[in-house]
Amino acid sequence: MILTPVIPRSPWERMRWGTSDAWVVTKRVLMQRVRQPGLLISGLTFPIVSVLLFGYVFGSAMSVPGGGDYREFLMPGMFAQSMMFGIGITMTGMLADTERGITNRFRSMPMARSGVVLGRSAADMLNSLLDLVVLVLCGLAVGWTWHGSFGAMLGALGLLMLLRFAVIWLGIFLGLLLPSLESASGIWGLLFPVTMIANTFVAPEMMPGWLGTIAEWNPLSATVGAARELFGNPGFGGDSWASQNSILLAVLWPVVLIAIFVPLSVRRYRKLGR
């Protein structure tokens, strides 16, 4: 005899049901990373190599507006770039589950519809926290440090994780929207100009006028600028409104992305296979 669980009806029961299912999915994604250390190593290799490459090879030729050490200017940009590249990591994970039939298996089970996407977002947040910790240690090893208060430092890390949480939902939506892993290569290609046309490696005022304006209003630039300000690192601020209000924009941009892509992701998951 097949027993079918009773679907909760009250809001409290449905929330508890969704949370429980999300935790099951979270543990599954985390176990995948533990059992595939190659994914962990490859995910950390690129940012660490970038730190060494830009910090030591190109760093001597870079100048920071207002003066200061380029490696201290660089590290907040590297932290934020790593969070932004999480779009591709989340997207690829969702597409892999879809191609293997795991997503359809979840949909055929008596699970909360929000559980799968919430579980994926929670697991990716935990993985990103580990990535950020490793990058911070790498930064400390090459001479970066923060000069503000401990609370300001925690605020900067919080804004970086807020950006990661926002782009997780963009990655989930793209992973549910694209037809195959091969089609995801174009998105990976777009991530490089998006993260480069920002204040990640070079101050926007050193770019051509039109390109500098685009860089200043890039959501990534807001988080980088806010992190530099809270860390007390050189290179924050500027003449434009966006540069002078980077902390405000570092909150508003992710909130807008979350408000758009959370409902879109849940709705897209519910419509799969229809």
Automatic annotation (TrEMBL):
One of its GO terms (biological process) is response to antibiotic. It comes from the Bacteria. The chain crosses the membrane at residues 38-58, 78-96, 117-146, 152-178, 185-203, 247-266. Keywords: Antibiotic resistance, Cell membrane, Membrane, Transmembrane, Transmembrane helix, Transport. Residues 38-272 form the ABC transmembrane type-2 domain. The keyword Mitochondrion does not apply. It is a multi-pass membrane protein. InterPro entries: ABC2_TM, ABC2_TM_bact-type, ABC_2_transport, Nod_factor_ABC_transporter. It is found in: Cell membrane; Membrane. One of its GO terms (cellular component) is ATP-binding cassette (ABC) transporter complex. Pfam families: ABC2_membrane (PF01061). One of its GO terms (molecular function) is ABC-type transporter activity. Belongs to the ABC-2 integral membrane protein family. This is Transport permease protein. It comes from Kibdelosporangium aridum.
